[in-house]
Amino acid sequence: MGETPSTAAAATPSATTRTAAPQRASAPPLSARVRELGRRSWFLDLLGLAFVCLASLAIMVVVLKLWDDPDLHTPLQPDGDGLFTLSVFKGIQDWGWIWSNPSVGAPGGLHLNDFGALGPDNFHWALAWALSKIANQPGTIYNGMFFLTFPMSAGAAYLALRWLDISRLAAIAPAVLFSIAPYHFARGLGGHLLLADMTAVPFGVFLAVCVATGRPLWQRRAADGPRLLRWVSWTSARTLALCVLIASSGIYYAAFAIIFVVVAAFAAWLSRPDPKAVLLGAGAVLVALGAVLVFNLAPTVLYHHAHGPNTVAGQRNPNESIFYGLNLIGQVLPPQVHRFHPFATLGNEYWSQTESPGEGSTWGGTISVVGLALLIAAIAASLAGGARGRWLQDPRMRGAALVMITAALVGATGAGGAFISFIINPSLRAWDRIGIVLVFCGLLAFALGLDVLGRRVRGRPAPLRAAFVALTPVLILFGAWDQTWPAVEPDYKNSRAEWISDAHFVQKITASLGGRGSVYQIPYTPFPESPPVNQMGDYSPLKGFVHAPKTIKWSYASMKGRPEDWQAEASALPLPTQIKAAALAGFDGLWIDTRGYVNPDKEAVDPAARVTGVAPIISDDSRLRYFDLRPLRARLEPKLTPAERQAVEPDLTQPMETAYGTGFYQPESNAKDTWHWAAALSQITLDNPRSQPRRIVFEGRLSAATRSKVQLTLDGRSIGSATATPLPGRKVDQAIVVPPGKHTLGLSTNAPATTPAAGDTRDLRLQVLDSVVEDAEILALGKTR
């Protein structure tokens, strides 16, 4: 039967009918998605992390009054250790990394491998390298790194507290206050920029507390797979990353972390019935820290293996650990500059009288001191036992107390740090730097107290909960007031004026040299770590390098104790001879820092003007002088034979090395000379680093006015005798030809012994100046005009 019209119409769609598309579920509104995101733990932690980072930056801007310094190219600390750090940043910019810098220590260049403590700061050098790709000036890199240390330190403290299961709200204020500790400003603005990055401190304490409390630092994944990959869990990856960061953020913070983990492991071994898992975890942490340290120290170890140890550079005296020990009273007494007058008066009672100020106050703020008191109470509660003060017996509180006690016993003057320096190795001497660990321990204890308070107000009336929430900004504002003071603000005006003056001066030198050349710098200053030369601070000659293109070479910054430090010998020459030798050795200009002299015009500027015959370039602040040596070189070269001209440069930059042996007494000096007294028989070791024999002149002075003689032998063979001239000279001159390598110069004299002071039993016959031997070609320059 056929379909009825109604049936057909129902079965056949009309021309205008379309198949309906499947309907999509409508997306939830934005507000709902935000609420859902807000319920996720990681997002809330991210918000807390962002808050503490931004808060620390905001407080830094206010404390430093950065609006007073629009020129952020001027480093916050352009002198002393800050200038050295700037030079390392410039070296990274110019030459890619820290170890070799051909622009300084000309002509051989500077190798920093003897400065082994630089290796464990590889994280900071990598950060500076990254900043150098953005900033084109070392001052900008310095400031950028200092600014970054605030959010990095705050973020590290926040994460460490959260990983110890402290609530977000309780972790925020202590984390911010840690980042603005007085120690932070003192280090960054005092030139110790790398110590100002305190990121490693909270992480080191976190590892130690985990070991002490039995918290797992290494965990296996439940998933099947290769045995090694089963340990690639979030917990294990985090621990490994922390070990790499700590061991690459400075030798001090790495050493502190290792000590804390060792003590925590020992405590766990004593207190736990089955400590095997904890000890294995702690051992793995120590292996990781040690392996990264070995990697970071490898450039120094390999360099010493190839070139021998340097017994001069970077060497420490164990007694320095006493001077730089931690003043425990200074950990709780406020500094003299505190805003609150009674606090300032209290601090003044100690800091104005102490004879062991070390590197200054290590006070971390009132809230940190309160936290330290809580840790002491926790120790008392643990010893007393019982039900009272259960929150004080929290394992995390006990772990923090253990770290606090360890830090105090290691850092305190004459305590564990001194034992390490005197018995094991004096390289670590500034144990007062462990004070920042005590600061964090106090803030950790305070955060635990806040956490307990937060749990108790949970479920209470809304006003009480709101008051607890409001406590966080109150604590931050109080801490910012309590831990900072107006004196923290740098002297922007004078720093900028000095920086600009130096930059203009170097720009003029660069223009004079056409962008390429070598500059000889006086007065000579040993590198690194030298006391001031008159009013010229350590590392001052680096001013030229940090402002110049890398094609300008500078004589300063040759590693002392190495053959490259030739200027130590050259500086003993009379200044006119020294300048002439430098000109013939290829140096195009002479740099004079007048602050290095008592009477700069008489001692350096006027003699340089007479020898060079040119007018100097003068810095804007009148401190620095630059003389062009190229006209002098043009006048001198025709007066010398080709052989003499060719000999000057190696004679100057590869000086004869001398070592006083049998028959010599300790050096003596006055304002003009340094000398050694010798007995009737004595020996000097001569080391000729050149591959050719060299003709030198031995100079000595006999004790008596009689016509006495000095017999000389070289490696046991007689090379003649010299007779002293009469008074007032009594001088002995003898030409000697020394083959390459080491040789023994024997001296014997028939001069009678001089009459020493009462009680002095020495046999004083021959006085030998430190400039015991001088190359004949260089001595001849002193006679040229």
Task: Give an account of the 3D structure.
- By secondary structure, the protein is of the alpha+beta class.
- 49% of the residues lie in helices and 11% in strands.
- The protein is elongated and about 100 Å long.
- Residues 1-19 have low confidence and may be disordered.
Please tell me the overall pLDDT.
85
CA-based gyration radius:
34 Å
Which class best fits the helix and strand makeup?
Answer: alpha+beta
Strand content: 5-15%
- Straight-line N-to-C gap: 136 Å
Helix content: 40-55%
* Main sheet overview: 6 strands, antiparallel
- Counted beta strands: 18
Give the number of helices.
29
Shape annotation: elongated
Uncertain runs: 1-19
Quick structural gist:
This protein has 785 residues and is α+β, with helices and mostly antiparallel strands.
Key attributes of the depicted protein:
six-stranded antiparallel beta sheet; 785 residues; five-stranded mixed beta sheet; elongated; single chain
What order do the helices and strands come in, and which of them pair?
Elements: H1 5-11, H2 30-38, H3 41-64, H4 80-95, E1 100-101, E2 110-111, H5 122-132, H6 138-163, H7 168-179, H8 182-189, H9 193-196, H10 200-213, H11 234-247, H12 251-271, H13 276-307, H14 320-323, H15 328-332, H16 341-351, H17 366-384, H18 395-411, H19 416-424, H20 435-457, H21 462-483, H22 492-513, E3 517-522, H23 542-547, E4 552-554, H24 567-570, H25 575-584, E5 589-593, H26 600-612, E6 617-618, E7 624-628, H27 630-636, H28 642-653, E8 657-660, E9 668-669, E10 674-678, E11 681-688, E12 694-702, E13 709-714, E14 717-723, E15 731-738, E16 741-749, E17 766-769, E18 773-775, H29 776-781
Parallel strand pairs: 3-4, 3-5
Antiparallel strand pairs: 1-2, 5-7, 6-7, 8-11, 9-10, 10-17, 11-16, 12-15, 12-17, 12-18, 13-14, 13-16
